[in-house]
Design goal:
Elements: H1 18-28, H2 36-45, H3 52-64, E1 68-72, E2 78-82, E3 88-94, E4 100-102, H4 107-118, E5 126-132, H5 135-140
Parallel strand pairs: 3-5
Antiparallel strand pairs: 1-2, 3-4
Helix pairs in contact: 1-2, 1-3, 2-3
Length: about 150
């Protein structure tokens, strides 16, 4: 993800300061949704001097701006990720290890729009979290498999 030196870019109506940009860059380098402490470590490793509370504040601003999405894992912990599409935000979460995978569930939008229209709603935004067990946790749960 690229941002101009002046903070320009797709800012969702929010100015991209150096610290906000650092959080976005950190998120773009992660393999999937991550907790604020993981984002904090990544931002610090990239040279930004900022505390965990500051990262939480920046994440909240970026979530409000629509640049960052947030979901909860099975334990209720917030996981943050870059928003690829402002109207679709879907994840598959493992109940065993907390692994999160972004999924394309565009087919759900048609259903959601139909359901919303039936109640007089429009401009629908959809966010879905599917829970399951990832392949690794599934294998570990099989009888005779060492953990």
């Amino acid at each position: 993800m690229r941002f101009g030196r002046d903070g320009s870019g797709s800012g969702g109506g929010v100015r991209l300061t150096a610290r906000r940009r650092a959080v976005l860059v950190a998120l773009s380098g992660l393999p999937g949704p991550a907790g604020a402490s993981v984002v904090h470590r990544r931002v610090r490793a990239d040279g930004e001097r900022i505390g965990l509370t500051g990262v939480y504040r920046l994440l909240a601003i970026l979530v409000d701006a629509g640049l960052v999405g947030v979901t909860k894992d099975g334990g209720g912990r917030h996981l943050f990720h870059l928003r690829v599409d402002s109207s679709h935000d879907h994840h598959l979460l493992c109940g065993g290890c907390g692994r999160a995978e972004r999924v394309d569930a565009g087919c759900v939008l048609g259903w959601a729009e139909t359901a919303a229209a039936a109640h007089g709603f429009r401009d629908v935004s959809v966010s879905i979290v599917l829970s399951g067990v990832c392949p690794e946790c599934g294998r570990a749960a099989e009888p005779g498999v060492d953990r």
